Amino acid sequence: QVQLVESGGGLVQAGGSLRLSCAASGRAPSGRTFSNYAMGWFRQAPTKEREFVAAINWIGTITYYADSVKGRFTISRDNAKNTGNLQMNSLKPEDTAVYYCAGDPRGDMKNPQLYDYWGQGTQVTVSS
Question: pLDDT category, 29, cuts 50, 70, 90?
Answer without folding.
Answer: confident
